[in-house]
Amino acid sequence: MSINLLDFDAERFATFLAERGEKPFRAKQLMRWIHHFGAADFGVMTDIAKATREKLAAEAVIAPPSLMLEQKSDDGTRKWLLDVGTGNGVEAVFIPEDDRGTLCVSSQVGCALECTFCSTGRQGFNRNLSTAEIIGQLWWANKALGRDPKGDRIVSNVVMMGMGEPLANFDNVVAAMRLMLDDNAYGLSRRRVTLSTSGLVPQMDRLREACPVALAVSLHAPNDALRDEIVPINKKYPLKELMAACQRYLEKAPRDFITFEYVMLDGVNDSFEHAKQLVALVKDVPCKFNLIPFNPFPNSGYGRSKPDAIRRFRDHLIQAGFIVTVRKTRGDDIDAACGQLAGQVKDKTKRTLRLAAEGKTTQTIQITRD
Ligand code: SAH
Ligand code: SF4
Q: Which residues form the active site (predicted)?
């Protein structure tokens, strides 16, 4: 199998070129062609000698995942379904806002962590994405969206909040994020790259050392009993450990707060008492809250909290001194909202079979070309 140069961050480029007796500056040239200009063909790299290009082409390719489908929502949200082989697809979503353009990137085909309210989790797990498949999502989005009249890229921010648990695919996610930050690739500031995790404590510590970026933590419950139920990884890393890991992360984080995500599930985690418990839970962690009204999917068994409940919950947090945003639901007409990303996952964990037996399967989301 050929080497795929989209798998390489700067360090791997350096080793690869040194082993072939090439000068270090070639790394910069190649990275710029591939990531600044979206080149997938050595032929266009006219500032590199033809003989060198031929040598490279003999053993390496630049192979982004191929595009299966592109969709546009009425609100400007765009979604790309990318072919990651053997009948599997993953999704990347672009969300335009007044002051920024955010790409939501997937890290795995499915997810093994089984949060009960998440469509990706319900689909089971197939495999980790490669670095090329992760950075390939940004490569494609930049190709499709280009630059604004000032010459700045339309994609200004990345959130690792698509399908999968990014910290469960640590090495490939870190290499892809290093490319996002590299000036010869995407040049994003660490503050504009956010990784969202359900709370893998040891990997949060590793991330702080390897590639500190802004961190969002999917909390969703203010006590262990409820979190054990809806975010089962909590049984392994309970709230006390998670809060301590958040504090440690902040010692090196590019932002001085953690964003706690909290999905609002009707009658499950949205009472006034839950809000009070939450305030007590996070008292030692500088943080902001992002309340996410639950996005329904077929047979989820959950409903979205009532607007009044969301307001009461938010107001309590604000009165306690926190900055709180309630996430606007974007792109739900193309199933691109949080937790609706289903892609095409061939489950290897038998989770879908188990749920089918319990009558709790999700229907495969039909994506049609029109
Ligand atoms: N695995 C990571 C990142 C992907 S999920 C994590 O769990 O943090 C991105 C966010 O969407 C998480 O906060 C997740 O809990 C939330 N989410 C999942 N399903 C959802 C749904 N149906 N409605 C609203 N938010 C959901
Ligand atoms: Fe996985 Fe995140 Fe979904 Fe939980 S919420 S199942 S960790 S993708």
A: 91, 338
Topology of domain 66-357, per CATH?
TIM Barrel (3.20.20)
Look up residue 275 and give its amino acid: A
SS3 259: strand
pLDDT digits (tens, 9 = 90+) for 24-82: 899 999 999 999 999 999 999 999 999 999 999 999 999 999 999 999 988 889 999 99
Q: In this predicted structure, what is the pLDDT of residue 343?
A: 65
Q: Is 114 annotated as a binding residue?
A: no
Counting atoms of ligand 1 from 1, which one is nearest the CA of 295?
Answer: 23
Q: Which fold has domain 3-61?
A: DNA polymerase; domain 1 (1.10.150)
Q: Are 203 and 170 in contact (CB under 8 A)?
A: yes
Residue bearing the bigger pLDDT, 343 or 107: 107
From CA 13, how far away is CA 104, in angstroms rounded?
26
Residue 325 has φ and ψ, to the nearest 5°, of: -115, 145
* Proximal ligand: closest to the CA of 216: 1
- The predicted pLDDT at position 335 comes to 65
pLDDT in tens, 233-243: 999 999 999 99
- 104 is known to lie in a ligand binding site: no
Going from the Cα of 265 to the center of ligand 2, the distance in angstroms, rounded, reads 15
- Give the span between the Cα atoms of 26 and 56, in whole angstroms: 11
For 215, the 3-state DSSP assignment is: strand
Amino acid at 109: V
Domain ranges in the chain are 3-61, 66-357
Instruction: Give the other-Cβ count within 10 Å of 168's Cβ.
Output: 19
3-state DSSP helix/strand/coil percent for the chain, to nearest 5? 40, 20, 40
Q: Which are the catalytic amino acids?
A: 91, 338
Q: Quick one: which ligand is closest to 290's CA?
A: 1
Judge whether 211 is annotated as a binding position: no
Give pTM, 2 decimals: 0.93
Long-range contacts of 256-259 (CB under 8 A, 24+ apart): 256/286, 257/286, 257/287, 257/288, 258/215, 258/216, 258/217, 258/285, 258/286, 258/287, 258/288, 259/194, 259/214, 259/215, 259/216, 259/217, 259/287, 259/288, 259/289, 259/290
Q: Whose CA is nearest to atom 4 of ligand 2?
A: 115
Distance CA 17, CA 340 (A): 41
Q: Give first-to-last CA distance, the chain, whole Å.
A: 36
